[in-house]
C-alpha cells in the first residue's frame, strides 16, 4: 500500500463519518421524504446513487490500489447528475446569493456524496500519476550524469547516436539542395555540384562547432537534456507538494473542511465540506494546467497556481469572505468540472509529460543497441554455417553434457541422500564397516583352542584339570599367553633343537594368531568409531554435490533474472541510501517563515518516502512495518515543522538500523 492510497482511505473514511454525523444530528435540513420513499422513480434513483457511491468507496476495491480514472468517469456518467432534483430546481429559481433556506432533498445530498467520493479518488489518481511519473526521472537524470562525468560513456553515446546525426545532416543537405532547385532530372553532375556546395556552406556555417571536440558536443547535449529533466522533476515535485499542502490531504488533517461538525453547529459549517470538494477540484485543475505550461519557471509556479485559482469560482466558494455560498453550487456543475479535469486536463498532462521525457530522456533501445544488433545480424550467416557444419559435434557435446549432469545428480546428490536416509533408518546395507562380521569372535575362539591344546599337551607339572583349563581360557581372552610364552622362552635357548624336537614353531604360530587377534581388536575399535560417525560421513559425502548444485542454480538465476535497474542495490543498502536522500533534502531545504518545508521540497520528500515505504514493506516484519508507517506519516507531515522532521529521520535511523545495514 502506497502513501497516496493511505491518504485516499483516510479522506474517504472522514467523508463517511461526516455523512453519519449529519444523518444523526437533530434539525437536519435533509432527510428521506415520504414522496421519495413511495415514488418508484425516486426510490430507484436513490438506490442507484447509493450503489454508485459504494463502488467509489475505499473498501470497494483492493486496499492497495485506487479506483481507476476510467471507472470514475463511468460512474459519473452513470449517475447522470442533472438539475432535475427538487433542490436544484429550487436553486435555479433563486439568484446566486444563496439565500435559499428550503429543505435539502436526500437525492441532492447523495449526489454531493457521490461527487465527494469521486473527487477523493480523482485526487488520489492525480497524486499517483504525478508521483509515479516523477520517480523514474531520477534514473534518466543519472544516465545523463554518467555521460557528463565519464568520457567512456560520452564516447559510447556518440557512437550510438551517430546514425541519427548523419540522417539529420543528410536531410538538411537534401532540403538545401531542393531549395536551390536541384533535381536528378536536371542531370547528375548539376545535382552533385549543388550537393557539394551545400556541404561546403554548412561546413562554413558550423566552423565554430568544428573547434570543439565531438565529445564536448555530446556532453553539451547531455547537459541540456539533464537540465530539462531536472526542471520537469522539480515542477512535478512542486505540484505534489502543493496538492498535499493545500488539497484534501491537508484539509483532512489540519483544517476543518472535512471534520465532523458539532452537534448543533451552524449550517454553513456543516455544509463546508462541499466547498472543500469544489476547492480541491479547482486546485487540481490549476496545478495540472500550470505543470503543462512548458515556459513556466519553477520559482513562479506557486504564484501562477494562486493567480489561476483566484479567478476560479469553485475555489472562491471556500473563502469565508466570498459573496457566494455553498448552496449556490450545483452538483451538475461540479460533475462537469471533475469530468473535464480527469478526461482532458489529466490526459493532456500525461501526454505532455511523456513527450517531454521521450525528447529529453535516454535514447530508445534501438538507438542504444543498434551496433551489437547489427554485428549479430551481419555475422548470423557465418554463425549459422558453423552450426550446420558441426551439427553432429554440437549434438554430441549437448548429449554428453546432459549425461554428465544426470550422472552428477545421480551419483553425488541422489545416492548420497539415499545413504543418509538409510543411515537414519539403520538399514543394514548402509552401514560403514572395515571388518567382517564375527571375524574377531572366530579368531579369538581359535586362539583359545590353540593355547588350551598347547597347555594340555605340554603341562607344567601334573595334568591340568577343568578348573585350570577354564582359568587359562579366561586369561587368553584377556591376552595372557603365559603357557605358550614359557615354552617359547625355553626353546629359544636352543632354537635349532627347539625347532626340531621342541615346540618353538608351534609357539611362533600361536603368537602369530595372537597378533592377528590384536590387529582385529584394533580394527574393531576403529570400526566402532566409524559406525558412531556414520551419519556425519554421509553428510560429508552429500555436501559437495549439494554445494555445486546450489552454486549452479544461483549462478543461472543471477544470469537470467531480469533486473530493471542498472544499480542493483542490496535491499537493506537501498533503505539506507533512500534515508540519506531524505536527510539531504531536509538539510538543503530552506524553511518558510513558519518553519515549514516549501511545496517543492515537500514533493521531493514525498517521492523518497514513497520509495522508502516500498522498500521497507518487503524487509520489515509486519508489526514493525506498522510502527514504521506511523514514523513515515509523521515525517511527511509538513505542518510539524522542519526541525521535527529532521528529528524523525534520526529516530528512524537508529530505531530501524537493524534492517538498514
From TrEMBL:
Query: What is the recorded name of this protein?
Result: NCA2-domain-containing protein
Q: Which organism is it from?
A: Aaosphaeria arxii CBS 175.79
Keywords in UniProt for this one? Answer: Membrane, Mitochondrion, Transmembrane, Transmembrane helix
* A Gene Ontology cellular-component term: mitochondrial outer membrane
Regions annotated as coiled coil: none
- Annotated membrane-spanning segments are 535-556
User: Quick one: where is this thing mainly located?
Assistant: mitochondrion
Where in the cell is the protein located?
A: Mitochondrion membrane
